[in-house]
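Slide 14.
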Amino acid sequence: MTEPTEGDAPATDPSLEPSTDRRSTVLLLGAGELSRELALAFQRLGTVVVAVDHYADAPAHRVADRFAVAKMTDPEELAALIDRENPQYVVVESNLIAADALIAVADRGDVEVFPAPRSARLGQDREGLRRLASDELGLPTAPFWFAGSVEELAAVAAHAGYPLVVKPITSAPGDGQSVLLRAEDVEPAWRRAIAAGRITHNRVIAETVVDVDFEVTLLTVRTTGPTGPSLTFCEPIGHRQGDGDALETWQPQQMTPAALDAAKSIAARIVNSLGGRGVFAVELLVRGDEVYFSDVRARPQDTGLVTLRSQRLSQFELHARAVLGLPVDTIMISPAAAEVRYAGAEAPVSEPSAADVGAALVEALTTQESDARLFGRPDETDARRRLGLSLATAPDVIIARDRARRVGAALRKLW
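Slide 15: predicted structure.
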C-alpha cells in the first residue's frame, strides 16, 4: 500500500489496516493547518502519526502516516478509535473533543494523553478555567461575571457598567466576542456569543474592559525529567487584531523587567496547575508593570506562528519534543513578525488562479528576509479559515513588522 504523501490525498483510510510499525505512534486529534505542522514535527522525530478529524481530507491527513475520520465528540467512538490504534501518545489539537473519554483513557495508564485531562476539560470551559485562575490560584484578572441568559447578561451590564467584553464560554480566541457600549448591545452580543460556542453552552463570560498597553502570548514549555517538572519560556509575543480579518504578531514584545517577572510567575502557576507536558500559550494583558491573566491554551496557537522564523525551534517542534520527553530550547534567533489572514464571514473565498498566485508570491517575496505560506483548502477544524501567513525577520521588531505587512499586502491581492 502506498502511504499518503504531501499533496496527494489517500484514496482509502489506511488506519483501518493493521500496522506492523514498531515506532512510537502519536494519535493526533484534530487535523487542521496547525496539526499539519505538528504532524511533520512529530514525524521528524521518528514517530508514526495518525491524524484524526471529523471530516475527510483535512490538511494533516495529507502528511500523516495514517488517518481516520471520526466524530471526536462521541465518547464511545473516540474510545474505540484509541483502542484500535493503540498509540503511545494521544495529542489533542482541537476543542471539539469528548473530554470524558480522554480522562478514561488517561486513567488506564497505558496511553499518555496531552494535554492532561484537566487541561482538556478546562479547554472547553472558560468559566472553569477563569475560576481556577482567580479563585484557586489567586491570579490577577480583569473583573468578570458569568451569565446564563439575556436577562442575566443585562443585569451584569447594569451592575458592572460599560464598556464590557462578552465572550462565549467555549470558542476559539476572538470568536463570538463583542464589546457592549450600551444596553441595546446586550441581546446581539448574547446571540453572537451563543452562536460561536464550539460546544453548546448557554452561558457567557462578561469582563470589564481593562485599559492596557498591550497583549502578549507567553509560550511556556512544560517538560518532565529525573528531577521533576520544569518550565521554559519563549520571548513574549505581542499581538493585535490588524486591519480587516488579520492577526498581527511579533516577537519579542518589550516588557519591563517587573512585568516580565510577573508574566512568568502567572504562567508558571497556571501551567503547573494544569500539568502535563507540551507548549502552553498563556494570554496576558499588560499595563506598565502590572500583568493580568486572560486565557491559556495547552497547545500551539496562531499567535505562535511567528516562531516558525523567530526561534531555532518553532512552537510545533517544542510541543513535539516536550510530549516525547526530549530536551527543548526556546532560543530566539531573530526578531520577527507575522500576519495571519483569515477569510471574512460574509462570503466564501474564490480560489485564485495559478498565474495570480505566482505573481503575488513574486511581489511578496521581494521583501527582504520574508516568507509566505498559502492555505489553499478549507480547514473545518477551526471556525475561521486561514488564507495565508506572512513572515519576516529583521534586526529589530519595528522593521520586521513593516516587512510582514508588505508581504501581507501583496498576498491580499489574491483574495
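Speaker note: Residues 14-114 form a domain with the Rossmann fold fold (CATH 3.40.50.20).
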